[in-house]
Amino acid sequence: KTLLSAPDDAEATLHLASIYRKIGKLAEARDLLLKGTAIITDNPDLWYELGVVHSDLANYQPAVDAFSRALKFTRSAEQKQQTLYYIGIAHLTARNFASFKTTLEQLDQHSDYYPALKNLGELGN
Hints:
The chain has helices at about 1-5, 10-20, 25-40, 45-55, 60-75, 75-95, 95-105, 115-125. Helix content is about 80%, strand content about 0%. Helix 5 (about 60-75) packs antiparallel against helix 6 (about 75-95) and helix 6 runs antiparallel to helix 7 (about 95-105).
């Protein structure tokens, strides 16, 4: 009901999309997030969740695109590292090793995400 009366409510969009994803309704989550990001273009949490949903659907380039948009609007250094990590995983899963390497180089080597992503990359080669 909230989204019917306030389609620009990012929190309601995010919660409903998260519920859809958790109960396995990935297409519904994707569609809701696409609609939400068309209205609320600068919310990093919506873009991040869209990236997660695309990854769950094995749509890796759209996942990278969504995560990249999240990265653009994220202000938190920790969230940036986490988002880069998931971009790297999407590249790795899609076997896009050149882009994976570029993403790995963007991570802070002192973050917990760097060694984790680097190790996953070594397993994938």
